Each structure stands twice: as C-alpha cells, then as structure tokens.
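Researcher: First entry.
Model:
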Amino acid sequence: MNKTILVLAKFDSFARVAKRVADGFAAAGFQVDYRLIAPDRREALSSRMHREIGLAKETPVTTPDTLFRSGELAGLSAVYLGGTGAFVRNFIRRMREEFAGRQRPLTLTGYPGVILREKLFGFANRCGCDFVLLNASADLDDYRAFCRNYGLDAGGAQLFGYVFPPFHKENTAAIRRVLFAEQAAIPATRKERLYLIHRLIRYAARHQDREVVIKPRLVPGETSIFTTKHHLEYLLRSFPELPANLRLEYGDIQGLLEQTDLCLTVSSTVALQAMWYGVPTGIIRDFGIRDEYGTDFFRESGCLVTFDDLERDALPSVCPAWFSRNFAACDAALPEIAEAVAREYARREQCGDWSMNGNPDAVFCEAFLGFRPERFAKKHRIAAVLNAMFRRAARIAGKEITR
C-alpha cells in the first residue's frame, strides 16, 4: 500500500491540530505533505503563528481549486481537512463530483477546540468524511447519536483528543499570577469588553500582590476563524491609569500557563488546557450563561464564577466527572487512528468500494447545495443601476418642469 497523506489546514487553530496529525502519521510510516489553505493574504498565518505552531515560513500554500485542477489527489491514500465545517462540506462535495465511485483518498477531519455552539450543524458539515476525529467522549457520543438519527454511518468516528503539550503544575497555596485568556469574538460588544477590562483593572488594583496578565487571542492585524472587532489593546487606552501589576502579553499560551496560578476566560479552549495542567480555572459568567458565548458548555464544570466571586477569592474547582467526559489527550489515539486509516484503505483497494462515507444530502437538501446565487447577482446589479438612472432622470425632469 502507498501510505501517503495530504494534510490541509486553514487558520492557525486548525493548523496547530493539523501539525500534530502530520507528525503522528509520519511516525506511523506515512509520507506526509503538509500545506496551508489561504485563498488570499488576509487569511494567511502571521510569522508569530508560524513560529508558535512550529511551521517553517516556506510551508506550501494552496487552494482547493488548485488541488482539484492538478489531479494530484488521485495519487494519495488520505487527505486530512483542517478547516471550518463549510470548508469541509464543500471539499467533500467536490470529491463526490471528481471521483464518482473511482479510487480516491480517504478523508479525515476534526475540531481545533471546544465545540461551543451549533454542534449538530458542525456534525452535518463533516459527516461526509470517512473519519471524523472528536476531542472528547461526550462529543463522540453526540456524533454517534446524530448519525443514528439521520441514518448515517458513524463507523469512522474516532476519539482523537486535544492537542496540548504535556505538562503538570504543582498547586501552590498562594496566587502570584492570574492569566486572562481572551477570545477573538467573545464577548462581542464594545460595552462588554470595556466591562471586562474594568473588572480586570479593579481585580488587579485590589490584589496588588498578584500579577494580572491579559493574553489577547490575536495581535492587531492578525486574522483567524473569527476577527476581533474591539481589540483589548486599543480599549485599554480608554482607561487613564492602569495598575502597575496589570499587563498585556502576546507570548505562547503554553509558557504563560506554566507560570500561572489562576486562569480566567469566558469560554476559551485554554480553560481545558489549564484544567488538565492542574491550574485552578474560572469561567467568567458575568455576561450570562449563553450558548452563543460558549458558557453553556461549562455549566456543569463547577468553574463558573463572577468577578465579585474572584475579588472575594471564592475560587472554583473543576468537577472530575464533567472533566473526564469533556476532555481527552490525543497522544495515545494517533497511532491507532493512523493504523485504522491504513487498514481501511487496504480493505477498499481489495474490494473496490470507493463510495463516500455518509451522505450530507440526508441533512442538506441537494437542490440548495447546488444553487448558485451568483447567476442572479449580475441581473440584480444591472436592474439596480437602471432603476437608479431612471430615478435620477425623473428628478431632473421634475426640476425642469418646476422651472
């Protein structure tokens, strides 16, 4: 068997997981080709992101159109799709059209972190892949239930786990450093973000013996799955005086957590990483327990707190049962997943069955997926221009009559 895998990644969070997948498959004897998906410069990874993920600056960049036009997919045994649900769904749909029952590479996909919202919609986007890699037993159970409800095959669902470097911090009685891990779009509004900074400043002022570090998700100018509309670095300028023990830090989250005694966030995946490392973790619920903010995911974690709680040092403690269902480490799973892919490809080579696993059409109407609105856009633009010209001519004619 020709064991070759193309690993594709779009955005930094997916690129980090894809890098771990690439390394794991290489260790299992696969020939690995790692590429980034970046249709334009706005979606390209920054130099900082390359460095923190461990990617070379010259990592090849491609697009789905380039891959399908080149025909190189036909010579592969597997493709890992590290991208959003829409990216995965569109790629799988093009593979159906391109190969149509002919020999093809197996497809894998997964998630870069906590599934905060629209879980079933995400499953529907990914269910056409041969292997869907889930990060926790709770997600695996939910995906299998989803497939049962829609009559889809869940045989390719695999427990993958979170991609965190191994580390464990010894608990200390004293809190010397507090880390707040920000998210690009949570909370969303300027008012909420100003409140967030106000409370962090007040916390720092009332605990001057502690260093309070704010870790923004993105450096200004960087992009990811979500963009930051109200960047904390800019909003901090709205406050004339900042405590000497409060600062912004753009360093790697791994290094910051190793020096942290209390981790705070609204709903970042960093929370699970901190919990795994043994760092006390608080999920800020001042903005409400909301599905769109991801705090609903943590409702049974035992870690929901308010800033008032934190100022009184009423610290949270993670529920072990909740954590065991919602977290798994990926290291042990990767060799088994690579072996499962090799076995499945060999089986299909022997029996000649290259049908696509699952059927997104059972969830998404084929008529909708095949609809091309751009066919109508030009007509609408022409009509809009003509209407504007007629209205302008009517106004000019009216003025002339008045005169």
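Researcher: Second entry.
Model:
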Amino acid sequence: MIKSGAAILGAVAMSVTPTTNIPAQASNANGTVVGNLTLATLAMPQYADGRSRTIRIWTPKAYDPADTNRRYPVLYMHDGQNLFDASTSFAGEWEVDETVSALMADGYRGAIVVGVDNSADRLNELSPPWPRNPGTPITAPSGDKYASFIVSTVKPYVDAHFNTLPGRDTTGVGGSSMGGIISFYMGLTYPAVFGKVLAFSPSFPLYVKRDYLARIAAIDFSPAGAATRLYLYSGGAGDGAMSENGIAKSLPAVVSALKRSGYPAAQVKSHVWAIASHSEGFWAAEFLTAFDWLFLTDSDRADMAAATLAIGYGDGDNAGNVTSNLDLATRWDYSAKVAWKSSAPRVITARGKFTRPKYPTRVTLTATVTVGAQTRTRTFEVQVLVR
C-alpha cells in the first residue's frame, strides 16, 4: 500500500470537462484523490435504452493540458468508483492514483488512468457473450456493447480532450472480477487497440470452460501484434468454484491454451497470491507489480533506478562525508548495473568500493546506471574520509 505517501505527493486538484451534450459531474473535493480527477458523463449509443455513464479521468498532479508535447500512456479500467477515492468506493479503493504518483515521484514519466463507472446492470455489461454455467446471475450479457462503448466512445473522447499516447503499445485495459473477465475479452477482441491487459481475479468459472478454451484455440496469436501483453492474477483464498481459489485453478488452462495458439510466453504473466481474498485491498496491493510489468519500459526503469540511486553518508559530525562503500541498491532494482568513476584517482573502484585515500578528499562521483540497452548517469559531490 502506498497511501501513507499521499500527503507528500500533493493536494487534490479537481477539474470538470463537459461533454458536448451531457453536463459533467463535479468530483468529491473531500475525497482521497491524489492528483487531478475529471468527471464526465457520456452517452452509450451502443445500447438502445438511452443509458449513459460517468467516466473518471485521472491525470497526475504535474499534468499540464497546455503542454501537448508531453503525452501519456492510458489505462482504461472498469468499476471507476473504486479506483481513486475511498469515499466513492464500494469496499475500499485500489489506490491507483497514489501508486502512479509514487512511481512518478521516483522518476517515472507518468500515465493517465480512465475509470468507467459501473451500474446496476454491471453483471450483464461486464459479461462477454459466452455460454454460462447453470445458476449464474448473468441474464442478458452485453459485454460486446460495453466493450464497443469504451473503444468507440470513451477512448476517442479521452484522446480528443487529453494529452494521450493513443497507440496500442501505450493503451491498456484492466479490472477485477467481472472487470477482469471483460478486460481479457477486450484484449482478445481488440488487439489493435489494447496492447496491455490487466485481468485480476477474472471470473472464468462463471463460463463454460470448453467454450472459452475453444475460443482461445481459434485465434492465431503468432503474428506480430496479435497478442497483447497480459497480466493474469488471482488470490488463493476460499473454497468453491467462484472463490479466489476456484478462479486461480482456472488460470493454468487459460495460459496453456494461449500458448498452444502461439501466444508468446514473454507476453503473458500469471500470478497467484495464495493468501489473497476477493477484495479491493489485495487488488490494490497487486496493482503496482502489474502496472510495472505492463507499462514500464527499460527507459522508464533506467530513469527510476538512476533517480533513486543513493550513497551512504556519515552521521553526526561526519554528515555529508562518505565513510563506507556506496549503497548500490535503488528502490527500483530492475537488475540495474551500476559503474562508478571518481574525479580523483584511487578513491573508488568501478563497483563502488572505496580505497583508502591518504587525506580526506572531496570528489565528484559519477554513476553510470544501465538497464537493458538504456544508460543514465548521476553525479554526487562528496567528501571521502580516511578510515
């Protein structure tokens, strides 16, 4: 959880962008949002009953609508009430805003997250049009219409009003439970739109197994661009088909079917957290790992590893003086390689081990941080004591 860092990441800023014909709604100024939250209501022309939906567009605190040169990847998510604000959530929030803000505080370029609110028809809207097992509460699945609403209505609106990176490689979709299963469906159905899918606790046990596995088998994922980057997650707590344990048991067959159809192994990751229950708290705890794997590039990771690199300083009278070997670890390891150079000879080795200078020496230390093919440098002005 990263909630504790919210106070240092900035106060809440609220804004409202209206649609062309439907008044926007004001967000809750007394909520727990970190950053900027814009609420708008969009018509859903995919449905014949005139329904509409509130969408919540979260942008980082540093977001500047006038700076069109700085654009952001976008993650579209379901159950928007539960993502950013504890005061609007059903049973606790995902803390998406705190998580992305904390990443940005450590050097990440940032992202926009769009939450689509749920409704009383949630089960039907978030259900793919697949055969269900007997006794399921889904009576009239309309996930194909809901998915089209996001692709054909929500995404064009967001791309037109915000500084986005609209391509598939910078666009994702995600959610949990029914939001997880519809995200999986949308990744299969719209691979040219969504290059990333976050599917937490996806409700596969509601559906006929042989049918959804056959649907996966019918797709050839081997051509370039056919497979999205897919993060599957479930807890392992509980008993019964629709418990987290039941969902977890459904994932290996899904992953196997994907791979048999040519899904690249490097494009899919599946994780089961044995103690986790079906709840926002555990989804919030998993979100950082999933977002990192889905959205961060080696360039982002090099930025963050370099930005959070630290050296060890003395205490008390030695404050500001380097008295021991450098701390090569960063908060974001990412298998980063670090090489050191000093402005003075025979003070430090390339691996960060100090020699023993004859006299206290003030030097400039340069660290070269490498993640994959990406390289960054950091400099430190320090005084090395004789020990």
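Model: Note on the second entry: Confidence is low (pLDDT under 50) at residues 1-29.
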